């Protein structure tokens, strides 16, 4: 029964690697084979669409180059994401804390997402220069939104009876927030964080289009007009791997931080599996 | 009428005075007279033009000579069929107030560029030509493609990659007189900034269409040469005219007129020694990994057919 | 303390006077309480029984300060109190255990709010685990507990918060007969020792009689107090009493009063 | 008490407009005044940072131009979002339906988000040309991710006891999915949808970069190098307004589709407000 | 049908033989049921009482087919059945009303799954609203209901699904005394009419005696059946019986058996 499967998640994924990842691996291999076959049969030029074998070769040959740039991007991602998490949680808390603040802040939060960053990137460059800062800001700008929206919904999902209980125990607003609303919001927050983490990677790439001298985004922008398409794809592979690993990492942290959310489901699942 | 052919043309950038001849040919029906229906569009990333033309999804495209050579080095089968301008438009630009008048003045200064290797090499050559060691003498800053604002704001002291027929006008209009250092005057081999490209396949299979297309284009630019401002009027009347900035395109057209056609060359003409020396320069500067026979990168086969 | 205390001149711990309350339901007002008078003397144990939906939980909500009456007043120890939150201990009908806290941490939430140190609070909770039948489960999350255990954990939380007045809304609803009678006796013991005032909502007439000094019977909605029965059984009481004649007689009386209610709630 | 405020949301926002939006309006006005003052006092050039008054004037003057382009963008947004919603819900259902499918599909879903679209632009141009299709695809690619992630988490949030109940009633997998998991997932889905709707707007802008001749993204890209910064900002204002309205619209739909989610909280809130 | 039926040669509706069950709890196995033997004849009403956490709900889960025993077998109507889901009606301890469905739509979920048309299902549900005290609330969402109403709605859902065997896990836990005795009498009436087999878990000894043909008493965990008491009170039964001597005697016996259990569950 689908819904009764243990929600083993990342931890289970890692533990049960050998078996459970088989389907995924098979699909990936099949797709790669198809791709390789397509490129070979139709003789697609590598400047247009390099074949998996060519990309793999590039990954190996340019390993040093790629990892140097990947490291730069990773730092931007992590710092920007950290900033997004901190500011996102703070903003969401303010929004959930008071209706007035919600009305005052939420429109700006939404508006911030509809501003095409590429349009203001040059302004960022002028205002804050061309170091780590503008990239981190672009990452944070992209990543904080899913965090805020999910966290606000999560904070509002707190059981009102539990809030009543706290009030009868003499809890003040802060207590209620810290001990009921915040814990209730965590499952939602983690949903948002998974999205945010993935978006951070693309955010760093966009950030690097302006004012950078290193990073995978920079490498791509530079390689493209030289028609080193296989290098562009190699960079994409590294970016994807980074994104997936960071996503899985958030899943892992989720299991550690809110074990009750998972065990609640798992226990029942074990019970039902018979 | 069965002869009518529909072709796709990818522009290098949004419609501007560089494209006047194309819009004239469209409006005056020169394309139609050749039984051609031309669909023009602008891909935002100009480097995609060579790929889409090379792959055959576009029939013609406007690109840049350095890019074309790099593309060919990677096996993209694209060929220049006409030099759209006879000289580089790319240049080094600084504010007049900066006191910079020659490359040597850039020593110790910040120079903004689009983050592409070509820009680095162009600057390097100019610096060396004027007696400096090279790139090590300046601080290069990747500022993306918005070169003018960073210059005015003082983020950088000069930029490389700005067109002396576009950004300079923009800056002057905004009240900032500028100094232009033309590439070909400071040691960079003269080259054709913009080139009309087609794929090798296209040239082999459909030379008549290419010929008809170029004939119409040449007629368009002949009109533009005769009266550039009338050409701007045509551009303004076009579908995208509303977004065109007259204050830039009017002076731009006047600046372009002398490079569409020079005393030495007609519109579109290409010279093989200029192609080769620029290719050699690119190889010397590491932009091409191997030496290249530039004669395959362009064709003059359509020039006589007037 | 027993029934006579109610008649003494001391101010009652809880005094509810002429309280009415209505809610909007699908746009029309629904009168839930209508002129409710009620009191509980200091140290008294009073039960409230009545048909489902008659407003028992609503009354407790109002006393606890979660809700304000539409009409009428509530006094605690003789003073009319507008802000009663934090003044009375309240165990609601749902157990409201927090899924993210272990049983032990759920139990100490009241102490935590009072600023008692975590280790001290844990120590106090541990001392009562045995009595509440939760030994060995203190570190489990609530979802691993049976229904009865959850309710005992919620009860432990209320007891630990240690207020002068306890409002208990069907606290033993999910307990088995054995644990139930044990907890009942334990409650009586605790109540005797610490002299708390207890208001108990229950649907078990046996329980109401066994525990209380007085039993209020409410009418169906809109709820009023239709009967107050003083329980004149001797204290201390023992589980065996439930089969004694006076007990059975009181039970028959209260059941008759309850049964005379219309039933379409 | 913050958590006990009625969660009146969009509907309430609209109804109680006059009063409740006051704080937001005041903040906006204050910010605009500050901005205007800054630009005037420091004599900032309008091509660097146009003042609110200049932007407002541009909005009025270029109303026809802006609305023509806005319409194009709106169509791209709505079609792309619709595609994202359909494919996102379908994907999430597959992922939640079977652990094997989850392992097989989820990595691709994540990977799809880390691919910088601009890097595959030539492929898009070659494969699907430069009509409506590539923009819609870019929008859908960006918008489906929050939908999938939230919906998967939502489907998994179904109460396992409720699933047991259904099983004892003889329900099959499909019944359980349709009658328990799907309704349970809706609050999560709407969180994701709000994010997705907002991202759709930026997605359309990015899509227009691949190659276009109309739309607000096109207009911006076009106006920027002409130093028509006030027009860029005017376009941003229109985009933001579009994003906020679409966001509010999703909130409204949420209230209509899952009224129980809101009334559950509101009723209790009214009860507690006294 | 009454107790003698159990001794007849007809195959019992439910036969549980030597069932054991253990769970992993914090890594170590926890034996919850240990060699449970149990049966309910066709048309019989059997109650199970026992201390909290002794495995009553676990036993019902196993009978319903939600769980499989670690050891032992379950037969329905004489056939050992591995797949029992959908065969028996099961009302769990939690009401499990779906917050997104109105009371009426919650009630008809079983009929919906059986393919009964919505209008027909609604009609059948409406016919019983009165009896279940839910009139006027049929279009409300569950959160607007009191605890007792929620449980009645859940009960209505179980009854509507209309299976041959009902497992009821503390179905009246949250009901007030009045509704409770009404629903009990209603249950007896329905049971007499339709000849269903009912297994009832309760913690109310009165209720077990009042309703049942036989009462099983379980030991504390690991749960076994430690006593089966045939209830030889005449049928039909009336609410007044609870104060009659034979009733009080049976109650004293069962309470004694329950009390002899160790209590640290
Ligand atoms: N917040 C509310 N909004 C609207 N109606 C409410 C609200 N709270 C309670 N009610 C209604 O008030 C009535 C009384 O509810 P209450 O919970 O006080 O009953 P009760 O006597 O505790 O019932 P039970 O014994 O079943 O717990 C019910 O009809 C209920 O539907
Ligand atoms: N899925 C599970 N995993 C681990 N332990 C479980 C699980 N389900 C039940 N238990 C344990 O099994 C024991 C029996 O639980 P069960 O719910 O059957 O008790 P019960 O007799 O119904 O109790 P109550 O009268 O309180 O409802 C409890 O100690 C409980 O903690
Ligand atoms: Mg109640
Ligand atoms: Mg149980």
Q: How is this structure best described in words?
A:
The complex is a heteropentamer, with 2 copies of chain A (274 residues), 1 copy of chain B (306 residues) and 2 copies of chain C (265 residues). Helices cover 82% and strands 0% of the residues of chain A. Chain A folds into 2 domains: 1-43; 48-273, Orthogonal Bundle (MetI-like fold), CATH 1.10.3720.10. Chain A is mostly helical. With 306 residues, chain B is an alpha/beta fold. Chain B is 39% helix and 18% strand. In chain B, strands 2-1-3-10-4 form a 5-stranded mixed beta sheet, with helices on both faces. Chain B has a 5-stranded mixed beta sheet with strand order 7-6-8-5-9, sandwiched between helices. In chain B, helix 9 (207-226) crosses helix 10 and helix 10 (228-237) crosses helix 11. The model of chain B has no long low-confidence stretch (mean pLDDT 90). Chain C is globular and about 45 Å long. In chain C, strand 4 (71-76) and strand 5 (79-80) form a beta hairpin. In chain C, helix 8 (205-211) crosses helix 9 (245-259). In chain C, the strands form 2 sheets. In chain C, strands 6-7-8-3-9-10 form a 6-stranded mixed beta sheet, with helices on both faces. By secondary structure, chain C is an alpha/beta fold. Chains A and D meet through helix 3, helix 6, helix 7, helix 8 and helix 9 of A and helix 3, helix 6, helix 7, helix 8 and helix 9 of D. Residues 56-57, 93, 169 of chain E line the site of one magnesium ion (MG).
